[in-house]
Write a structure and sequence with these properties.
By secondary structure, this protein is of the alpha/beta class. The protein contains 16 helices and 16 strands. The strands form 2 sheets. Strands 1, 2, 3, 4, 5, 14, 15 and 16 form an 8-stranded mixed sheet that branches. Helix 10 links the parallel strand 11 and strand 12. Helix 9 runs parallel beside helix 10. The chain is globular and about 70 Å long.
C-alpha cells in the first residue's frame, strides 16, 4: 500500500456534501485554509487542516507533498466533448468571422458534413493517436475525467470506430473517459425529411452493437430546428432508455424548442447548451434534478448570447460547465477560458464555477459518488494550482495555473 500526504495547502477546496449541488449550494465549496489530505493507493482517506491531520498521520510512512502557497482542488470534469474526430475546419471559423451564415457554409461543403467525411476516412489507429494528444492537453489543464461523444460518422461503421477508439483510450490513458452515443448528431442528406427512419436505423442496427460491446453509457441527440424535432427526440430518447442507456440531450441551443422541458420529461441526466432555454424549461430542470450543462466557450466562439447561468442557479438548478471541444463551433478545451467566461460574462462567482467544473460535472456523467470532491472514500483525483487562492483563477485571466495533477493517487502531470 502507498500513502501520500498533502499538507499546508494555502486553500484546499473539498466540494464536499450532497451532490449535485443546486442553486445557492453551489457557492459552498468546503474551503479549508492550511488544508491537508491523506490518500492511500487510489483513495482519499482523510481531509482536514494540517494541524488536524498532523496529529493523526505518521509522516514516516508517507510520501509528503508540500502544497505551501498553492491551491488544491478536485480534478476537473469536462462533461461534454466531441474529442474524437477527423480533419479540421479552421477555414470555416474565418468565414464566420467575416459574417458568413451557417447555411452558406453548409452550401460550400462545410459544417458537420465536412467533419463526417474526414472522420469516415480516419482509421482507428489515427483516432487513438490524435485522441491521446487531445487528452494530454486536457490533463495539463487539470481535467481528470472527460466525457466523449461519437456523432461524426452518422453510419454504423464510423460511429462504432469512434466509440472503440475512446474505449481503447480509456484503457490506455490516465484520464477516465465516459462515452456517449450521439448517432443522431445530424441527419444524413438521404434521410432529410425522413428523420424518424434515420433514428429507427440507429436504434435497430447500431445501438444494439454499442450496447453489446459496452461502448457507450449515455445516448444523446441534437434536438434543434432543422435537425431533430421535439417529437423525434422524445421518441429516440424513450427508446434509448428502454435499451438501458442513460440520457443526455443537446437542447435549446439555437432556438427555444422545449428541449429543456423534454429533458425533464424523459429523466435525462443532463441537458446541454441551453442558450435559448425558456423560463419554464429552467423551472422544470430545477424541479426534476436535470443537470444544466453550459458550454460558454461555444457561445463565445459563435458570438452568441451566453446561457442564463445566473438565472438557472438563482432558480435552483444544478449547473455544470464543460468545454464542448469539437472541430466546428468550439475547437478549445481551455479550462481557464471557461473560468473566465463563467465569472466575467455569465455572472457566476468563482466558487460556483468551481462547483460546476467539479462535483456538478461529475454528476453530469453520473460519477458524483466516486469523483468530483475531496472526501474520504472518493477517488484521489486532485489538482494543484501554483497560486495560493481560488481567486487567482478568474483574475489571472485565461492562463493555465495548473502545477500538478494526481489521478487515482498517482502524479500524472507535473509542470
Amino acid at each position: 500500500m502507498s500513502k501520500r500526504y498533502i499538507r499546508h495547502a494555502s486553500e484546499l477546496v473539498t466540494c464536499r456534501g450532497q451532490a449535485p449541488k443546486h442553486g445557492k449550494e453551489m457557492a459552498d465549496i468546503g474551503l479549508i485554509h492550511d488544508g491537508a489530505l491523506l490518500m492511500e493507493d487510489d483513495k482519499i482517506i482523510a481531509v482536514g487542516t494540517t494541524e488536524e491531520l498532523d496529529a493523526l498521520v505518521n509522516m514516516e510512512e508517507c510520501e509528503v507533498l508540500d502544497a505551501a502557497g498553492k491551491t488544491v482542488l478536485p480534478g476537473f470534469v469536462d462533461s461534454h466533448t466531441h474529442f474524437i474526430f477527423g480533419g479540421y475546419r479552421a477555414d470555416e471559423f474565418s468565414w464566420r468571422l467575416k459574417g458568413d451564415s451557417y447555411m452558406s457554409i453548409m452550401e460550400r461543403g462545410g459544417g458537420i458534413n465536412s467533419t463526417v467525411a474526414a472522420t469516415r476516412a480516419t482509421s482507428l489507429e489515427d483516432m487513438v493517436a490524435v485522441g491521446k494528444e487531445r487528452l494530454d492537453t486536457m490533463m495539463e489543464f487539470g481535467v481528470t475525467t472527460v466525457e466523449g461523444k461519437s456523432g461524426y460518422g452518422l453510419d454504423c461503421e464510423t460511429e462504432l470506430r469512434q466509440l472503440r477508439a475512446m474505449k481503447q483510450l480509456n484503457e490506455e490513458h490516465p484520464l477516465d473517459i465516459v462515452t456517449t452515443f450521439l448517432g443522431p448528431h445530424s441527419v444524413l442528406p438521404e434521410y432529410k425529411g425522413r428523420e424518424r427512419d434515420f433514428l429507427t436505423e440507429q436504434l435497430e442496427n447500431v445501438m444494439p452493437i454499442v450496447k453489446e460491446e459496452g461502448l457507450a453509457e449515455f445516448a444523446d441527440i441534437f434536438c434543434e430546428k432543422n435537425v431533430f424535432s421535439i417529437e423525434d427526440a422524445e421518441y429516440y430518447l424513450n427508446k434509448a432508455k428502454e435499451m438501458g442507456f442513460k440520457l443526455k440531450i443537446h437542447a435549446d441551443e439555437m432556438a427555444s424548442l422545449g428541449g429543456s422541458e423534454l429533458a425533464a420529461r424523459v429523466g435525462a441526466v443532463s441537458a446541454d447548451h441551453l442558450l435559448q432555454a425558456s423560463d419554464e424549461g429552467i423551472r422544470q430542470m430545477a424541479e426534476s434534478g436535470v443537470i444544466s450543462t453550459l458550454l460558454p466557450a461555444t457561445a463565445f466562439s459563435l458570438k452568441e448570447e451566453f446561457a442564463r447561468g445566473r438565472k438557472m442557479i438563482d432558480e435552483g438548478c444544478a449547473v455544470a460547465i464543460a468545454s464542448d471541444l469539437n472541430p466546428g463551433s468550439c475547437f478549445t478545451n481551455s479550462i481557464p477560458l471557461l473560468v473566465a467566461l463563467g465569472c466575467i460574462y455569465m455572472h457566476l462567482s468563482v466558487e460556483e464555477v468551481i462547483t460546476a467544473l467539479t462535483i456538478n460535472g461529475a454528476a453530469a456523467v453520473d460519477r458524483a459518488d466516486t469523483i468530483g470532491s475531496l472526501e474520504p472514500g472518493k477517488q484521489a483525483d486532485i489538482v494543484f494550482l501554483k497560486y495560493p487562492s481560488i481567486h487567482f483563477m478568474p483574475y489571472h485571466t485565461a492562463i493555465n495555473l495548473v502545477d500538478t495533477v494526481i489521478k487515482k493517487g498517482k502524479t500524472i502531470y507535473k509542470k
